[in-house]
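Morning, I've got a small favour to ask if you have a moment. I've been staring at a protein lately and its backbone has me curious. You're getting the sequence in one-letter code plus the fold written as tokens. I've dropped the whole record in just underneath, so have a look:
=====
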Amino acid sequence: MTTEPLEDSDRAARMALLRTAIVYTPLFAAGLVLTALSLSGRLDAGPVLTVIEAVLTLLFGHQSIQSIRDLRSTVVRTEGSIGRKWTKMDFIVSRSHYLSVGRNIFRVPPVDWHLVEEDDRVLVVHYPHTGTVASVEKLPSSEGPAQTGRK
């Protein structure tokens, strides 16, 4: 296996992180300003709108901070068996593909999703805070004679 596809997939994953940071960081900053103005009384928003602003600001902040943290970190590897494999529609316009490996849930590219099945052993290379996947590699099955640990 060459290292070039991993570099390309890592580059694509980093670009996805960068896009997420670029989208959510300004929304987070604007939410902070609006919420602060609402709480200080300089913006007559009312209590319901202020709570909605605060909740949205927390959600935008979480996405922004996790993406920025991942941009500063390196990829990690999670190895395990696929417990569940599924798809779902996001915003009625695109289909997302998911894998459950151990206690982690990963959104993976469709190509990787179609190459693996439930109970397959995989190595998922991803960023630690957002779970953004750089690559999924199918590992050889560990089935065979049971190992006792004795020689």
